Amino acid sequence: MFKLNLNLAATCLVACLMGGPAAAQETQGAHVSIELNALQSVENACRISFLVQNRHEVDIEKAVYEAVLFDTEGRVDRLTLFDFGALPSARARVRQFVVPGLACTVIGRLLINGAETCSGNGVPENACSQALELSTRTDVEVLR
User: Fold this and answer.
1) What whole-number distance in Å separates Cα of residue 64 and Cα of residue 43?
2) Does this model's pTM top 0.90?
């Protein structure tokens, strides 16, 4: 017996009425998600690991995000760029960055200021920043 999922049917109806596949992609939540996954101290530096997923239907060839690292007292420690490189569509990627001269224990918050670069063939405008989903598996708060 066929069971109708009303939420899915409504989503499809809205997407069709709003303009087809492009609208359907937006309705389904095309976006980039970045999870701060781990912090690890390494020789006078902090290794920051992210799990990133491109939930768009097209590959992102280059994604660079501007980030601000705050200490545990809320003061800006540094502003930096994290080059996540290529982000294939619908695939998870782990990216690690070693920040020299930074102890992981002093990081209180990480602010993603925005996408400095987001490019690729057919990549929608603002694909890396619009509906950006941020999360953390650490004690460090991640902000947008």
Assistant:
1) 25
2) no
Mean pLDDT of the chain: 86
Task: At 79, give phi and psi (nearest 5°).
Answer: -110, 135
Give the span between the Cα atoms of 90 and 100, in whole angstroms.
32
Query: For residue 27, is pLDDT > 80?
Result: no
Structure-block tokens of residue 24 = 């359907």
Distances (CA, A) of 51 to 14, 47, 106, 126, 137: 31, 13, 21, 20, 10
Distance (Å) of CA 10 to CA 26, 28, 56: 14, 12, 21
β-strand pairing of 107-119 with 60-71: antiparallel
Percent of the chain with pLDDT over 90: 80
What whole-number distance in Å separates Cα of residue 77 and Cα of residue 25? 38
